[in-house]
Amino acid sequence: MRILLIILGSIALVLGIVGIFLPLLPTTPFLLLAAALYFRGSPRLYEWLLAHPHLGTYIRNFREHKAIPLRVKITSVTLVWATLLYCTFIIAKSIWLQIFFIALATAITAHILHFKTLKK
């Protein structure tokens, strides 16, 4: 069971890291999942993740404050809209797919903005 938890935690960690660069893949939820799985599977990996200078910050900020830094909110919302507007007007040929992309961008934006903004 311990090995399975470590493997699943590592998959969640990779998805979280990819989410930093891909706007449609959420970073913080995957990092929180990785932390939870590492906590149960490997205390050493859990401590490493929390102590990581970049990734640990996402987890600590969210766990302690349930908030997202303003810069991260702005970047996330901008990338979501840029990606989905590109998909809407360049890739999608169907009006229903275009409506879906706009609705998806709106839903993701609402989800991001419903969290408090982390004040320094």
* Number of separate structural domains: 2
Number of strands: 2
Number of helices, counting only DSSP H or I runs of 4 residues or more: 6
Helix percent reads over 70%
Task: Give the overall shape.
Answer: globular
Residue runs with pLDDT of under 50 for 5 or more positions: none
Rg, Cα atoms, Å: 16 Å
> Which structural class do you get from the secondary structure elements?
mainly alpha
Give the distance, in angstroms, between the N- and C-terminal Cα atoms: 39 Å
Most strands sheet: 2 strands, parallel
Order of helices and strands: HHHHEHHE
Strand content: 5-15%
Overall mean pLDDT stands at 89
| Biggest β-sheet: strands ordered side by side in the sheet | 1-2
Structure, described:
- The protein has a two-stranded parallel ribbon with strand order 1-2.
- It is about 80% helix and about 5% strand.
- Helix 5 (about 70-90) packs antiparallel against helix 6 (about 95-115).
- The protein has 6 helices and 2 strands, in the order ααααβααβ.
- The protein is mainly alpha-helical.
